[in-house]
Amino acid sequence: MKLLFVHQNMPGQYREMMAWLLEQDQGHELAFLTQRKNFPAPEGITKILYQPRHAPAQDAWGLSKVWEEATGTGFGAVEALARHQKETGFKPDLVIGHTGWGEMLFLKELWPDVPVLGFFEYFYNMEGGSVGFDPEEPVSPHTPFLLKARNATPYANLHSVDRLTAPTQWQADCFPKPFHENMYVCHDGIRTDLLKPDPNVSLSLGRAGQITRDDEIFTYVARNMERMRGFHVFMRALPKILAQRPNARVLIIGGNDSSYGPKAKDKGGFRAELEKEVGTKIDWDRVHFLGQVPYSSFQQVVQISQCHIYLTKPFVLSWSLLESMSMEAPIVASDVAPVREAVTHGETGMLVDFFKPEALAEQVVDVLARPDAYQAMRKAAREHVVKTYDFKTVCLPRHIAEMNALVSAEAGHIRI
């Protein structure tokens, strides 16, 4: 079978699927369409680079800006695929890709007979999601119109694919009813066979010394330190945690940019804003900002953690939460709908009000002070992730079955 994966930031949600297909060596021809120039494609995968054909001006009208960007992206993507087909003769039997940025919009104009499986990640709503959730980020009277205009891209993609998938039920439920008729829910999958606790893990903090699981360490992880992932709530909880646990240290993974929403006003990013706010209330010698780290280092940080903090607004669920549960890190997370789908309070993690840093601090302090009381919770968290989100035994079989169902027998099928 000839498979084409599409994601502007290769490999995206297809990291595990791509690696597994390469391991199987079943003779499938694999290609990946992406904007990511500096990511080396693994041997056995042809990388097809594209650039948006058009980008909106900085002062473009807000109601059309996202659509203008999506169509420019989609046209650039289909132009690159047409060139590649002309040069190599490659025409896929199946396309699997992310629909969020427009790359999938015009594929049917190029290949009307090629089935397309589209990944639908998020649909913006005025209620129940991230918009308007935090009073510190009030919405404007124009917000409902901007969101409806923004959702033009998923609406157009609804008619550009043959099958839809969403990673969690909550994310699927964000979409209107017309999307549900042809959508299945299945997570990308977590490699629980690789993500396990390690009692012998150790980590160097440079001049701050070496740490092991004998040290009192708690952790916070996000792609970037920003409001969407509750960084402000976390920082406001730090003074109380560090004051009540004088031997504790915190390891913080995350960049200083913005993945979701506007950039911080301060030149030093949102981190600088919050450092100014908490100021002298914190013993900064026990606060370690690690930046964005390699995946292996992320694993060590979580494996060494005596309490892992996961905060988010009602938004897409981070892989890091499920990965941390798989490694048996005790979880303290924000009590919002997408998290409740993965974490049951008191059984697989502890949930706290997103808006109450004091409550977050109290819960973290208790987890650090009474580790034995949360040992069963750690085990239950891993068991839940293995049962519900494991890549090889749960998610992979479902995705492969859906992919095979879209192609003809002549194209061949993927074997598990």
Write the layout of secondary structure elements.
Blueprint: E1 2-6, H1 15-24, E2 29-34, E3 45-49, H2 62-88, E4 94-98, H3 107-110, E5 116-119, H4 143-150, H5 152-158, E6 163-166, H6 169-173, H7 177-180, E7 183-185, E8 202-204, E9 210-212, E10 217-224, H8 231-244, E11 249-255, H9 269-278, E12 287-291, H10 295-304, E13 307-310, H11 319-326, E14 331-334, H12 337-342, E15 350-352, H13 357-369, H14 375-389, H15 391-406
Parallel strand pairs: 1-2, 1-4, 2-3, 4-5, 5-6, 6-7, 10-11, 10-13, 11-12, 13-14, 14-15
Antiparallel strand pairs: 8-9
Helix pairs in contact: 2-4, 8-9, 8-13, 11-14, 14-15
Assembly state: single chain
Please, what is the CATH homologous superfamily of the largest domain? Answer: Glycogen Phosphorylase B
Largest sheet: 7 strands, parallel
Shape: globular
Give the CATH architecture of the largest domain. 3-Layer(aba) Sandwich
Can you describe what's shown?
The protein is α/β, with parallel strands linked by helices. It folds into 2 domains: 2-189 and 391-411, Rossmann fold; 202-389, Glycogen Phosphorylase B (Rossmann fold). The chain has 15 helices and 15 strands. The strands form 3 sheets. The protein has a 7-stranded parallel β-sheet with strand order 3-2-1-4-5-6-7. Strand 1 (2-6), helix 1 (15-24) and strand 2 form a beta-alpha-beta unit. The longest helix has 27 residues, at 62-88.
